[in-house]
Design a protein that fits this description.
Radius of gyration: 11 Å
Mean pLDDT: 96
Strand order of the largest sheet: 1-3-2
Oligomer: single chain
Number of domains: 1
Strand content: 15-25%
Largest sheet: 3 strands, antiparallel
Low-confidence stretches: none
Distance between the termini: 5 Å
């Protein structure tokens, strides 16, 4: 398993800018809770799933099998 940053620099930069503006919370989510702090709970749960391969909700990170 490997986690990598999206290779599309434009998307990665846009999400990183959003993270800076929100204090590290997922810029794609309205609520600001510990579950939406980057790396969000949704993606941490996806990382734990051995069958999951794909992007996090914001498309900043990609999990490879």
């Amino acid at each position: 398993m490997r986690i990598r940053v999206n290779e599309n620099k434009e998307i990665a930069d846009m999400v990183k800018e959003g993270l800076e503006q929100t204090g590290g919370y997922c810029p794609c989510r309205r609520e600001r809770t510990p579950d939406t702090k980057c790396m969000c709970k949704e993606f941490r749960d996806q990382i734990a799933d051995p069958d999951f391969e794909g992007f996090c909700h914001c498309q900043l990170y990609y999990k490879e099998k």
